[in-house]
Fold each of these.
Amino acid sequence: MGETFDGLMLGFSVALQPEILMYAFIGCILGTLVGMMPGLGPLAGISLLLPATFGLNPIIAMVLLAGVYYGAMYGGSTTSILMRIPGEAASVMTCVDGYAMTQNGRAGPALAIAAIGSFFAGTVGVVGLMLLAPTLAAWALRMGAPEFTALVMMGLFVLAYMSGGSMLKTLSMASLGLLLGMIGIDQMSGFTRFTYGFFELGDGISIVPVAVGLFGVSEILLTAGQEEPPKVQKPKLRELIPSPEEFRLSVGPIARGSLLGFLLGVIPGSAHIISSFISYGMERRLSKHPERFGKGAIEGVAGPEAANNAAASGAFVPMLALGIPTSPITAVMIAAIMVHGIEPGPLLIVDHPELFWGFVASMYVGNVVLLILNLPMVGLFVNLLRIPYVYLYPCILAFCILGCYSVNNSMMDVWIMLIMGVVGYGLRKFNFELAPVALGLVLAPILEISLGQSLAMSAGDYAIFYERPISASLFVVGIILFGFAIKPYIFKDKKDWRAKVGLEGDHS
Amino acid sequence: MTQDAAQVTQKRRLRSDQFSGLMLVAFAIFVGWANRVYPFGSFQAPGPGFMPLALAIFIGAMGLLIAAGGARSLPLTEMRWPEAKRAAMIVLATVVTVVALEGIGYRLAITVLLIFLLGVIERKPLRMVAILSISFPLLSYYIVADWLLVPLPLSPWGF
């Protein structure tokens, strides 16, 4: 505990430097703007900003990108509450009761509770990260290739169980992502695969053009042509204060959402999206008046907002402690660190304590910045929503081209972005989730190398995966969850959690 | 056409999930075919073709299951594509821009793209088209290339 405290003090000595504070501030503002714009979620926003961090030192780069991440989560909730437009996927559940509260004239309290819930959950998440990451990193030093194989496999099983839509479609998209990750030189054999003579593909496909194409360009293709800007309410500062009853009703959902979100965030998958769905379902189930949900229940705003922000913090635990991205967003952030020659993983805390603890402390700072900055400025931010989309999307598209080109100065990346945009557009029309594609892409090299190394260690004996306790446990957990996932397909009368929270009617 | 015949026709119409499932199967077959040049190795010592083939088989199986369970999804012919024409124009304009990017430089290529999107596709007022299509490339070039020192393509005329 003493070491943690010392580390945190070191972190604050880094994070409170004026320059870093300024970048945290800029990150939060940019993130809020990104989160409010349909077509630019946190992933596309972070990917586009990645080249801008190359000239910065790694701590500042991380602080800036983390600020964008938090800000985007907050910005997404603002558009959800005021306009029923989820700026990013995690805010979908906030739309339901948040917008209903706006229609009931309670937009201000909904925004305030979303901000307070996000702040509390973000802080809980950072405390969890602070306590859990060093322990996990120390434990991870004992993990070998079989454990990493099991961990990635468990992540894919969890993804199947927790997916918001059809499990079959989610699994096929994760496999598509894994397959994309196979393009380039196979690190075990040196064979070049699926490059078709394009030498730029030898190093594989980068996450940035895939993310920008799938999430940015596909959104532009789907929504281009929206002529009129939607009507926006502009709440005044004095209207933001929730009533004592609204405060009382929000305490439980915020606490439960924070805990649930953090625990889900640690596990690979699109946790920040899934956690908000589960939190909403849980609050509706626990409520004495579930009929209020959908008509402006503040618990339906407090719980999901807390959950998605806690999950955002939780996702940093395996990223920093194990060097494993649990989401496409953390994969881009790993790329941001690796550009500076720093390898995330168990040795990060030992070798670069100022980076780890500076990042942790900056997350506290970022949460405070968001709370004190965004609520008073909500009126200013909503002005952005009055700009017609027909003026915004050409600029966003130009930004996408600029962002993808500048990562590696490669035209190939721009082509990949465009192809992924068209593919993403088609997949979304057919109700396929896109996040598993990006996740599969970043997990593919880890899975293939660790599987190859495991089999080399055991002379081709698959028993290595169940003879070692950690990998066996991870596989068992994964298989149990997968069993739960396929239960509704086998027993037609059984409903899984998706049906219970009203996410999906059938299991096609 | 009798009511029974209409119902049979309705039942026989390809559904969206059936179509997307079959597309996945076709994609899996293509990957399996393209993967034939890479050594498979063995289950004990996987070669470079092992994992792609395993994934292709898995995607094919998922595609079949999606298609098999897709009878209740929306008929393919009833899917609405109101944005498709505009989306195709945007893609075409972006393709031309990407082709031209290294030839005529970032600023000129993006200016032409914005003029096309705002002026031709969206038919916005000339003044707004001029302001945005000139100011955006110049400002973004200044921030990224001059301020952040990320090199961007220049035209043969040096701008």
Note: The two ends of chain B are 67 Å apart (CA to CA).
Amino acid sequence: MVFDTTFDFQVRLALGLGLAALVVSFGLVLQVLVMRMRGQRRERERAEVQARWRPLLLQAALAGPGSTNLPALPRRELADVLLLWIQLQDSLRGSAHDGLNVLAMRLGFAQQARRWADRGALARRVIGLVTLGHLGLAEDRFRLRQALAEPRTLTSLAAARALLRIDASGAAPLVLDQYLARPDWPAARLGTLLRDAGAEAVAPALLERLLAAAPAEQIRLLPLLRFAETPRTGSVLEQLVAESDDPQVLSIALRQLHGPDARPRVRALCTHADALVRSAAAVALGHIGEPDDQQRLTAMMSDRDWWVRYRSAQALLALPGAEAAALAQARAKLDDRYARDMLDHAWAERALQTAGGGAA
Amino acid sequence: MNDWLARLPAWPWIDPAQIDPRWIEATGWFFIGYFVLLTLLYLVLNLIALRLIGREAANNEIGALADYSAGLEPGISILVPAYNESTTIAAAVRSMLQLDYPDYEVIVCNDGSKDDTLEVLKREFALQPFPEAYRRALPVAEVHGLWRSPRHPQLIVIDKVNGGRSDAVNAAVNAAHHGLVCVVDADSVLQRDSLKRVVRPFMEDRRVVASGGTVRLSNGCRIAQGHLQEVAVPRNWVARIQVVEYLRGFLYGRLGWAPMNALLIISGAFGVFRRAALIEAGGLSTRTIGEDMELTMRLHRIHRLSGRDYRIAFVPDANCWTEAPETLAVLRSQRVRWHRGLLECLWTHRRLALNPRAGAVGWLAYPFMFLFEAIAPLVEALGYIVITVLVLSGLISWPTFWVFLLLAFGAGLMMSANALLLEELAFRTYTRPRHLLQLLAAIVVENFGYRQLNTWWRLVGIWQWATGRKQVWGEMKRRGSGDGATT
């Protein structure tokens, strides 16, 4: 072998790398197997813990903890029991919470939850913060407010959830301010919390911020409005539609509009330069329009934008007094083929929805 | 050393004395360097994926506490291109109509099928002609008509002249009513909660223009009425090895690139796009085979080169199950096509390579894809050839030959074992211990023959790309998943 000596170093290196790769692979495979065994053992333990504690927690929730002797709660089982306790807190209503809280105090959940809320792995911190929210102790509010500003999304949202749980009206302004400052808080995630907090508690803070906010913030706040449906909500929306000139704000607000007072403004927006606003105005007219709007919507069915034509046709069919005969007559008068096609489309779609009992 | 090996004659046309040892040495360094660099880069991707998977595992630990659903999910149009799918289409559509999502529609586009795909749809869903005011935001082949069902108002069927998969998707984009569109293959099965998961990046970040889920293989799984009933590892070895390949490709091939916003492919089998971004980009290209990768790269190019802020995301726990080829002939055709597609995409978007404005896409993902995917079969084949020639001509010893093979084997094994680790850490999809052992066996077996075959097929792909062969819809014999197991 002529070049074996020249090759020596390379071959030794290749051999070393190859063997190292084999050893690492073997280690990884071993780790996978160990993880599988550990995971299965963990599942079994979790099922046992739940089987042992679920009846006790349910009894505490429904009849109070009484003076029953509770089994010892080893440290390694605490997270599972706390998760079960939170699950019951979320699913039960009324006095059941009091029973669960008394039991939690007997078991020392508050101290443990505080320790977890302050430091540690993400999962533990979230469990700790949510537990503190359910316990609702005044002394934990400062801790929760601090956690609200946590850089990690899940922990800060868990703190928001806890604060809203303890005092929804008092916490709503804090939480909404935090939301506006945090692009990492998705509207849907906060929406879940606001829905649980209740519209009456959330609406004042939300509506106040909505009117005072800049357009970019209004765009983030508007989807949350559905969780703040109060008698004042409609008038705030109308005010927003009347005062805003941002196309995105207008298009989101118009779609939620239901009050008749905004009709003149909506009609004016039907000729807005932005197609997004025109199509949202058509949607709004579908909600609040009058028979007189038929002509306006018919004209909009000849718009250059497909979506404006589509929404106008849908709105036309939704107008009060939009009877089949009258619409057929209106259709016959249409010169524009696109408008006619769109009306046929919307008409057939409505028929489908009526037949299917749902919305497409 | 075996006697027969020692007795092999040296190649007469190579005279060892005439070869400069420095060439041999340089060749050795080239292959070792390539291997080390490839392994290191994969390890980096793997570490990134591990970090994200760790977060996923933490979320799993707190279960519902990390969950949210306030009814604010954006509407989605599911687009299903269909060509000769009469055996699977009814079950596929039925399962899509039962997804756990508040606001969506299903648009099936029959792309001039030669079988009775359209008839099956009409019969199964009581379709009626619909006077759609069809808009042509994207140019497509002639549309014969649209059909809708009074029983399922959210189902739309388009019947059109054959124009290829991309054309079918574009036709469905034109008919979409929602702001997000999700492209799903007709032979794929979505998990009931997959849409909710894959849409999250759009809800969490307004800059997101596309998001992809994980494609897993349904071979061996029990599927009834278009729903996944039980996950299993396929008995067929060709499919079984592909399970490992898919885990590798999705769990760190994609998860690793996503945080750098340098994901170069959103799978055509399951990807969500912002409709406006898709239309602005011109829809799926009808001129390339790798249309899913081409679109993803085009979105990168449009946004990067115009300096716009955007994100392309990947959601590892949004699963879509699809049937993989079980015969080498079908697999060959798929792999040849995929590799040609890859080369076409890299060539089409060569402006991204090392472009100062292309960021991680141009400076990391593109060069990586070129060096370690596109030309990898050439390097691998060259390695096999050079080392065989050298050993047969007596220039290096047989032990040296085995050492280099050990190196290649060890690297392949390590990558696959890594993927299994990620899977076990976060998802544990294959719950039975037997499944795990079957996958462990597959990561060993794939190194003996399967990998080399793949290299050969990819070389064929390179050849076909270089010689410019025409593309066609890929056809695969389906077993059908209407009522029962797919295997």
Note: The mean pLDDT of chain A is 90.
Amino acid sequence: MNLNFTPEEEAFRQEVRAFLAAKLPAELVQKTKTGVRLGKEDYKTWQRLLYEQGWVSPKWPTQYGGTGWTAIQIHIFDEECFAAGAPRILPFGIGLVGPVIINFGNDEQKATYLDDIRSGEVLWCQGFSEPGSGSDLASLKTRAVLDGDKWVVNGQKTWTTAAHWADWMFTLVRTDPDVKQQEGISFLLIDMKSPGVEVRPIITIDGEHMVNEVFLDNVEVPAENLVGELNKGWDYAKFLLANERTGIAGIGQSKAEFRTLKEIARHERKNGKPLIEDPLFQSRLAKLEIDLMALEITNMRMLVEEQKAGKPGPMSSILKIRGTEIQQQLSELSMDAVGVYANPWIEAALEANWNGEPVGPEYAPARTPYYLFRRKASIYGGSNEIQKNVLSKAVLGL
Amino acid sequence: MDFDYSEEQTLFSDSLRKLLEDTYSDTERRKVLDQDDSFHSEALWQAYAELGLLGLTFPEEMGGFGGSAIDMMVAEIEFGRFLSLEPYLASVILGGGALRLGGSAEQQSRLLEPMIAGELKLACALGEPQSRYDAFDVETKAEKSGSGYVLSGRKAVALGADCADRLIVSARSAGGVADKQGLSLFIVDAKAAGVSINPYRLSDGRGAAEVTLENVAVDAADLVGEAENAWPLIDHVVDLGTAALCAEAIGAMEKANDLTLEYLKTRQQFGRPIGKFQVLQHRMVDMTIEKEQAESLALLACMDADKTDPAVRNRAVSAAKVEVGTAARFISEAAVQMHGGIGVTDEYVLGEYVKRLAVVQATFGDVDHHLQRFGALTAAA
């Protein structure tokens, strides 16, 4: 048992730092540090840089562009990227559909999609949830009917993050309505430029447009866009969701946000002293940091297990639950920290290159929107209650 | 980074578990709990000595086996699982730890060798009635007398002082009552003139005592470490003991969770096992998460318990004690609640785990104490 990083791991950390110092654009760092909203091109720029470095898809098998890093190296990489102020990589391509194509797709699909997923040249979105199918995902109704050499798809997807940016959408569609729900679902790839695809924005309570409704009206999809076997989509979805759970923990990002929170708490005053010295605030800050330290080690314990087993186990639901709880607490405490300046709603201040007269400290305008933004963390990727059902059944045997 | 036990640790953990399974059933432990003359099993203590457990954490030149604080953790997790009543924490980790870290070669050979052989027990008497969890808050006086010292004062809830042959006592010869300067540590014979010991059991059945010192004469040879500068040593010893307690709590929480899960699967109400009810399932999941998170930091605390940089060590140990304390309270209360009436009966074993976890909570600082210490380190960093 040893929790220290090896000299090789420390050397790797330096290598990552050197890369970030040389390549991460200052403009992106400025945006992430102040909470300015990122656009499609911001995500694409960063992904392209990682792609060129060969570091964009560390977890993939090496023959498809993985780095062959250990679980600990992946953790270090993640931590350093966020510490330097890099944006996240949108998960839909590299984290979600990529591994499904690698594991269940055919050679032609691999040749068609994988490299564009890595480069970020083609952006993806996830067509899973429907208006009537949230936690009960397997009840989904979007129908795909084979007509000669094409599928005809009708239905509606919702909560589709980045659908307005995406070139492609991977979907779960019902291909057999007459069998048990889980046994009549298939995994289909849809070109967002296809006639009959309509994207409508959903504005969330933080004021941002990131999620969408996607309407599918007699959309024609080539038969070869089916991934894996017909009616086996639910198995692929479970595989994908397990990968999604471990990705959501977001330790590196939370550590970076904690540092920002500490800076805010040093800057804010209470009774003439820095807020960080206030016993009540300090106690909340301490508990949050301790929970995050614990999750970081729990995460590494599970990553090491995951790498040994070759896939994430059901315990990874713990990472999703605790990771999102911590993200939400960070956003709460950051909002509480700015006091009365949490109240002004200056949306324009969240856009890049805003030149208006500042209201309150530079970090203040993003705090309440961010708090509101984070509410969804315990809902998406399988709500935290669903994660507890998973743990209860698969780990505890209840 | 590596989270597995080494081959030696696995072997050793297995043999300790086997020993405890064979000799320390719930029934056997109950017999020890009913003893009046001694608060632990001396036969088991001797078995620990034979197994080499008492020398585990000492370097070979002190007669030990060269183990680390991680080895200490491996042992303490088993003690927690089996609710061991023996003064391992008191004698080996605290008393022995003070001499290992701060004692002279002469003191080590005089006391550690017989301690490791099971012939002599040690205990630390650091806290006082007014000091709550601050080990630097010391009123006990040490006055120079010839080449030695004379000690007077009172020590509170000293773990293992009920059966110790020698006490390691903190006393002040300079500074105000809550100063970290001016403290010294002394070896005191429990039978020396002027020492009175009022022994009792803690709520979890372990032995402790109030210790009164009235003009107790000690030799210069019994000063441990540097005179009037014992705080770094005291702080380290208490951190070591706290890390050990955290490991013990992991074993105890694991068992409390196992008992509860088993009960959820067997207890029938409304025509089905109560574990079919989602409200109980989710609470059981929460108990599991709490224990995993606490375990992660208990590992960190034991990794860092022997670090000499107090900032690094204090931080890891306080983080662990906060997470363990929070988890222990949640698990104790949820376990009793989900057992229903049986959970509050003295006959059923769950209550013993609840009591053990309550003692862990109020030993070496509760959640508030460690949140404060951790918070101050964070604010300063």
Note: The two ends of chain B are 25 Å apart (CA to CA).
Amino acid sequence: MQEFWSHPAAQGGVVPFVAGLVVAIALGRFKLAGLAVAVGFCACAYLLNGLAFVPLTATRKIILATLAAAAVGVVVDGAARPARSAGIVLSLAFGVAALWVFWSVLSQRSLQEAIASGAVAAAAVGVTVWLSHRLADSPVRAGSAALGLGLGAGVAAILGASATYGLYGIAIGAGAGAFLLVQMLTNRRTAAGWALVLPAAAGAALFAAGAVLLAKLAWYALVPLALISLVVRLPAPERMPVWVQAIVLSAYALAAAAASWVLAWKLGVE
Amino acid sequence: MSRIAIGLVAAALAAPASAASESFTIDPFHSHPHFVVNHLGFMDMTGRFDKMSGKITMDGAAKTGAIELVIETGSVTTGDSDKGTRPRSRDEHLRSPDFFNVAEFPRMTFKGTAAKWTGDFPSAIDGQLTLLGVTKPVTLTVEKWRCGPDPRTQGKRYMCGGNATGTIKRSDFGMKFGIPNVSDEIKLMIGLEAFRDQ
């Protein structure tokens, strides 16, 4: 049994997917199915990191920031009428949070390098959150974007020399996949909300930025990832069953993710 | 001064280094920590860190001593640094957050005191290893130790050197990736030389 829990496929895939599936089914009626992403990610984080947060490394800060994003998302969803400025405020907030996350790395670099690296991380996270927040009311598009963001960041991180960050990213994708699967099987849209888009966008972007700053991922690979939430707004067959829409939109998202993988691979071998 | 007095003074000045506490600076070109890790239950893989610095203080008469080592984690090497057509090499992987996370923790340190002595030289060192921001106790067994004049300088420079071994569990320091395929238990082998400070 221990072999199962320590196997990467279980840590990054099976366990987060099953955890997300349980949540998507159980909490759908409460419009909290979007927590499938955060819960799936939590399951992976528990298997990889446990409950230790001392010392508070950059990786552990990313975990906390992702969980905080889910909590903030629930609060925003619960508001009778979320402020129109919520999107820009949260984008800026998580962009700044990226600087907090990677401060231990940035503080060891020269001022010029720190500013450049910090700007890349903050911009990647802020832009990804900004482009994702508008999907909160579109469950299938939101789920597809989260799937692409998670798998995109995860595989890119693996290509950038960090398998651990890869597993975290893939876990986000696995939770999103569970969220989508419930809709595909029931042919009914389930509320996604900020509770899904915020942890998916912030978490995936932070792990991708982490793979740039702490591993060998080229920063250019972050650009296609940030555009995933834009790509899923392309036309979809709205009158077709939900499962068809999910497949089409997920294909858009994964195509953008694949662009990131190609950049990560090509720049990695040069 | 009489010849006898001069002889006594000369004898006192030529007394062994252990007569008082002496400090030594690690020779970075002849000091390297090595490690051995088991891969998939098959072979034992050896790696090392190319950059180590530090200080030793020793008093053989009083049977006291201390050592402080600073190891640059980014200097880790297992002989696989050329990624070829792969997106990364093994040594690059070791520097990533999966293992030594060198961008965040560029150094690991060992601070110890000589706990046991055999004759005039230490045989065991009890210390604290700080790796990935976590500090844990580690005991090193001194396998060999010798002090004497550096033959390369016709005796003008005095040096000490030897080897010590120990064992740690990397998971104790938060380095959990790949367990058990890449073993949790790591054998340490530290070889060093140090010159007595003038």
Note: Chain A has a mean pLDDT of 93.
